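Just wondering, can you check both lines?
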Amino acid sequence: MSRVNVMQPWLGEEEAAALAEVIASGWVAQGPRVAAFEEAFAASQQASYAVATSNCTTALHLAMVVTGVGRGDDVVVPSLSFIATANAPTYVGARPVFADVDAVTGNLTAATVQAALTPRTKAVIAVDQGGVPVDLRAIRSVCDPRGIVVVEDAACAAGSTYQGRPVGASAEIAAWSFHPRKILTTGEGGIVTTSRPDWAERARRLREHAMSVSAAARHASVLAPAEQYDEIGFNFRMTDLQAAVGLVQLARLPEVVARRRELARGYRKAIEEIPGLRAVADPPWGTSNFQSFWVEVGPGYPVDRDGLLAALAKADISARRGIMAAHRQPAYTGRDTGDVPLPVTARLTDHTLILPLFHQLSESEQARVVDVLRDPS
C-alpha cells in the first residue's frame, strides 16, 4: 500500500509553463503578474481591492496596521486557530484576547465575541476555520455599532461562500493564504482584500518599505524618480513567479472546490453511520470548501482521538490533530490574554482530527480511510 497524505497541492504543467514564461520575461520580482493576480483574485471574491503579500501572516499584520490597531488596544481572536491569528495583533503591540468558539463550526459567534469584548477592544479577527464560513454579519452586528473593525481571517476559505457570495465579499478587510496546505497555492503567499481605497493604498505602500514610488514603476522609467519614505514600512512583497502560479490556480478553483465537496460528501455519508464520530458540515449561512475535513471523536467511539490517529498511521494514512489552541502554547501561556473560559476550544482541540482530503484523492484511498474509521482496532 502507498501512503495516503493528509494534503497534497494540485500542481502541473500549466503552472510550470507559467513560471517559465515569467523567467523568460526577465522580471521575476513583484510586477505585472502580481498586478494581474490581484485584479483576478479581487474579481473572483467580489472584493473592491486586493493587495498581494508574501504570506497570510504578513497580510494580517498589514490589516492590523491599516485599520489603526496599536499599542494599548485589545483584539478579540479565537484561540482555536493557527497561531498567526494571535500573533498579528501582538506584532503591533496590541493584546490578543482569546474568545471561545461554536462547537459545531469551530468559529467565533456574535455571543462568544460579545463575551470577550473589553473597553479597549479595537478589532476582532474572525476566522473561517478550515474553510467553514464564519457568520460575519452576526459578528458585525455586535461590532459595527461600537466602532470595532472586524478583520476576516479567510486564510483557509478561498472557494467558500457566505450568504450566496464568496467569503470575504462582506468584509471591510480580509486576509488570505496561499500556503501549500491551502487549496489555492502559490508556494507561499497571501493577499489583503478590502472595500476601502485608503486601506488598500496604504497597504500597497507598506508592503514595499512604504516607498512613495513602487519598484516596478521605478524599473519602468529610464530615469527613475526619487522615492520617499514617509513611514516605517515592511518587505511583504509577492513575486511575479508566485503570482503566475496563482493565476493558474485561481482558474482551477471551481473545479478543485467541487471535487473537495464531492469527497466531503463521501466522508459524511460514511461517518453518519459510525456511532461516536461527528464530521464538519456546511453551516446554514454558507458552504465550505472543506480545506480541512475535521472529525470529532466522541465518547461512544471505540478509541479516543489519539487512538484513531495511531490506527490511521498503522494503515499508512497520514491524518493530523485538530486545530490548535493558541492559549495553550508557551508563547501565550505567560501572557495576559483575557480571562474568558474556553471550554469548547479545549474540547475541539483535544477530540478532533483532520482526515486526508485533496483533489487527487482516489476512491480507493478514501475507502481505506473509511475502513479504519469503521474499525480502528
Summary: Residues 141 and 153 are 18 Å apart (CA to CA). The chain has two domains: 13-251, 253-374. The longest helix spans residues 240-271.
